[in-house]
Write a structure and sequence with these properties.
The chain is α+β, with helices and mostly antiparallel strands. The protein is built from three helices and nine strands. It is globular. The relative contact order is 0.26.
Length: about 170
Protein backbone atom coordinates (compact mmCIF):
# COMPACT_ATOMS: atom_id res chain seq x y z
CA UNK A 1 0.00 0.00 0.00
CA UNK A 2 1.04 3.59 -0.39
CA UNK A 3 0.59 6.73 1.65
CA UNK A 4 -0.48 10.00 0.04
CA UNK A 5 0.85 13.52 0.48
CA UNK A 6 -1.11 16.41 -1.00
CA UNK A 7 1.08 19.36 -1.95
CA UNK A 8 -0.61 22.72 -2.49
CA UNK A 9 0.35 25.24 -5.14
CA UNK A 10 3.25 27.34 -3.86
CA UNK A 11 4.03 29.88 -6.57
CA UNK A 12 6.37 29.75 -8.47
CA UNK A 13 5.98 25.99 -7.95
CA UNK A 14 2.68 24.76 -9.39
CA UNK A 15 2.76 21.40 -7.60
CA UNK A 16 -0.26 19.27 -8.51
CA UNK A 17 -3.74 18.36 -7.29
CA UNK A 18 -2.70 14.70 -7.67
CA UNK A 19 -1.11 13.37 -4.48
CA UNK A 20 2.50 12.31 -4.11
CA UNK A 21 2.50 8.55 -3.53
CA UNK A 22 4.90 7.22 -0.90
CA UNK A 23 5.61 3.49 -0.79
CA UNK A 24 7.58 2.82 2.41
CA UNK A 25 10.17 0.01 2.18
CA UNK A 26 8.58 -1.35 -1.01
CA UNK A 27 11.79 -2.25 -2.87
CA UNK A 28 13.83 -3.45 0.11
CA UNK A 29 13.74 -7.04 -1.19
CA UNK A 30 15.52 -5.90 -4.38
CA UNK A 31 18.39 -4.25 -2.53
CA UNK A 32 21.72 -5.76 -1.61
CA UNK A 33 24.74 -6.51 -3.69
CA UNK A 34 26.05 -4.60 -6.67
CA UNK A 35 22.92 -5.03 -8.80
CA UNK A 36 20.46 -3.08 -6.61
CA UNK A 37 20.02 -0.24 -9.07
CA UNK A 38 19.55 -2.60 -12.01
CA UNK A 39 16.94 -4.62 -10.12
CA UNK A 40 14.87 -1.57 -9.18
CA UNK A 41 15.17 -0.08 -12.67
CA UNK A 42 14.03 -3.43 -14.12
CA UNK A 43 10.94 -3.34 -11.88
CA UNK A 44 10.14 0.18 -13.06
CA UNK A 45 10.71 -0.77 -16.72
CA UNK A 46 8.47 -3.80 -16.34
CA UNK A 47 5.74 -1.36 -15.28
CA UNK A 48 6.32 1.17 -18.07
CA UNK A 49 8.74 3.58 -16.36
CA UNK A 50 12.04 3.93 -18.20
CA UNK A 51 14.72 6.44 -19.16
CA UNK A 52 16.17 5.56 -15.76
CA UNK A 53 19.21 6.86 -13.95
CA UNK A 54 21.19 6.44 -10.71
CA UNK A 55 22.27 9.48 -8.67
CA UNK A 56 20.76 11.65 -5.92
CA UNK A 57 18.27 14.51 -5.55
CA UNK A 58 19.32 18.04 -6.39
CA UNK A 59 19.92 20.32 -3.38
CA UNK A 60 17.63 23.01 -4.84
CA UNK A 61 13.90 23.23 -5.49
CA UNK A 62 13.01 21.93 -8.92
CA UNK A 63 10.18 20.16 -10.70
CA UNK A 64 9.29 18.63 -14.04
CA UNK A 65 6.50 20.20 -16.07
CA UNK A 66 6.59 17.53 -18.80
CA UNK A 67 6.45 14.24 -16.89
CA UNK A 68 5.81 12.48 -13.61
CA UNK A 69 8.85 10.95 -11.86
CA UNK A 70 9.38 7.85 -9.73
CA UNK A 71 12.28 7.80 -7.24
CA UNK A 72 13.51 4.82 -5.22
CA UNK A 73 16.08 5.11 -2.46
CA UNK A 74 18.56 2.25 -2.91
CA UNK A 75 21.03 3.29 -0.19
CA UNK A 76 21.25 5.63 2.79
CA UNK A 77 18.71 8.23 3.79
CA UNK A 78 17.82 11.86 3.24
CA UNK A 79 15.34 14.53 4.13
CA UNK A 80 13.44 15.74 1.08
CA UNK A 81 11.25 18.83 0.93
CA UNK A 82 8.18 18.53 -1.29
CA UNK A 83 6.36 21.60 -2.56
CA UNK A 84 8.89 24.43 -2.43
CA UNK A 85 10.21 26.70 0.31
CA UNK A 86 8.37 26.51 3.64
CA UNK A 87 6.71 23.24 2.60
CA UNK A 88 6.89 20.02 4.58
CA UNK A 89 10.01 17.85 4.58
CA UNK A 90 9.93 14.05 4.65
CA UNK A 91 12.36 11.28 5.50
CA UNK A 92 13.33 9.15 2.49
CA UNK A 93 15.40 6.04 3.21
CA UNK A 94 16.62 2.77 1.77
CA UNK A 95 13.77 0.80 0.22
CA UNK A 96 11.33 3.74 0.00
CA UNK A 97 9.72 4.82 -3.27
CA UNK A 98 8.15 8.19 -4.17
CA UNK A 99 5.96 8.84 -7.19
CA UNK A 100 5.95 12.58 -7.84
CA UNK A 101 3.25 14.05 -10.05
CA UNK A 102 4.42 16.53 -12.67
CA UNK A 103 4.87 19.98 -11.18
CA UNK A 104 5.72 18.88 -7.63
CA UNK A 105 8.82 20.70 -6.42
CA UNK A 106 11.39 18.60 -4.61
CA UNK A 107 14.72 19.34 -2.96
CA UNK A 108 17.24 17.36 -0.92
CA UNK A 109 17.59 19.14 2.43
CA UNK A 110 20.26 16.81 3.79
CA UNK A 111 21.51 13.27 3.26
CA UNK A 112 24.04 10.85 4.63
CA UNK A 113 27.07 9.85 2.55
CA UNK A 114 25.47 6.60 1.36
CA UNK A 115 22.33 8.24 -0.06
CA UNK A 116 21.63 7.07 -3.60
CA UNK A 117 18.45 6.82 -5.63
CA UNK A 118 17.23 5.61 -8.96
CA UNK A 119 14.67 7.49 -10.99
CA UNK A 120 12.55 6.86 -14.06
CA UNK A 121 9.64 8.34 -16.03
CA UNK A 122 6.39 6.92 -17.39
CA UNK A 123 6.82 5.81 -21.00
CA UNK A 124 10.48 6.89 -20.86
CA UNK A 125 9.58 10.55 -21.22
CA UNK A 126 12.40 13.08 -21.16
CA UNK A 127 12.10 15.37 -18.11
CA UNK A 128 12.62 19.08 -18.18
CA UNK A 129 14.14 20.85 -15.18
CA UNK A 130 12.14 23.78 -13.90
CA UNK A 131 13.47 25.86 -11.02
CA UNK A 132 10.51 28.18 -10.58
CA UNK A 133 12.10 30.81 -12.80
CA UNK A 134 9.82 30.59 -15.85
CA UNK A 135 8.54 33.90 -17.15
CA UNK A 136 5.03 32.61 -17.84
CA UNK A 137 3.79 30.75 -14.77
CA UNK A 138 0.34 30.11 -16.27
CA UNK A 139 1.92 28.33 -19.26
CA UNK A 140 3.92 26.11 -16.91
CA UNK A 141 0.75 25.29 -14.95
CA UNK A 142 -1.00 24.32 -18.19
CA UNK A 143 1.93 22.08 -19.16
CA UNK A 144 1.76 20.32 -15.78
CA UNK A 145 -2.01 19.85 -16.05
CA UNK A 146 -1.67 18.32 -19.52
CA UNK A 147 0.73 15.53 -18.50
CA UNK A 148 -1.04 12.21 -19.07
CA UNK A 149 -1.60 9.90 -16.14
CA UNK A 150 0.45 6.69 -16.33
CA UNK A 151 -1.15 3.42 -17.39
CA UNK A 152 0.54 1.47 -14.60
CA UNK A 153 1.82 1.92 -11.10
CA UNK A 154 5.66 1.92 -11.00
CA UNK A 155 5.77 -0.57 -8.11
CA UNK A 156 2.54 -2.56 -8.34
CA UNK A 157 1.85 -2.58 -12.09
CA UNK A 158 -1.65 -2.74 -13.55
CA UNK A 159 -3.44 -3.12 -10.20
CA UNK A 160 -1.41 -0.49 -8.34
CA UNK A 161 -2.56 2.40 -6.23
CA UNK A 162 -1.68 5.04 -8.84
CA UNK A 163 -4.85 4.00 -10.65
CA UNK A 164 -6.84 4.50 -7.44
CA UNK A 165 -5.44 7.90 -6.42
CA UNK A 166 -4.71 9.43 -9.83
CA UNK A 167 -8.06 8.91 -11.59
Amino acid sequence: MAETFYVEENQPFPNNSLPVLYYPKRVTDLLGGSNSAKKVLALFEQNGYSNGWVNGIFPYHHFHATTHEVLACIAGEATVQLGGPDAEAYSFSKGDVLLLPAGVAHKRINANDEFQIVGAYPDGLEPDIQKGEAENYETIKQMVASVAKPDKDPVEGEDGVVLKYWT
